[in-house]
Amino acid sequence: MKMCELKERINDIAKVAGVAGAYTDRDDRRYPAEVEVMYKEASMYRKQFHLDGRELRNAAENLNENMDKLLQRIDMRSYEYGTSEEKFAWFYQQYDYFKPVWYIHGIPYFGEKWKAVEYQKQCEITLKSYLDICVEDVRKLQSQIKHSMKGT
Question: Can you list the residues of the chain whose pLDDT is less than 50?
Fold first, then answer.
């Protein structure tokens, strides 16, 4: 249920991120503007699935394990990519394929609108991929907890 509700948000968030990407000068920023919008959404996904730092520390304590070892053993990719805007920007680079062409995307209104739509598409793909990673990580963590409970 939670995943369905989060998936429904992706299109709207991707539109906002796409507009940010299209109308912000990428050369003046450390990361593309759309990264900031998507990072906030990705952080919310981690919180919703209890994959944020505090919750993971609690899980590691309950499993009597060091948090870093737990994260490494179950290959917690949501944590790897989602703990900072810089790491999320690196994750986003895998999907950042769109390169505006000045003679097409420089056309007032239509070019800018097309550019926003292209950025929206790649932001949507990025957010869907990150949400899938969060779901996969929750399953791995739950499996680890279940396995641990069987051993006691």
Answer: none
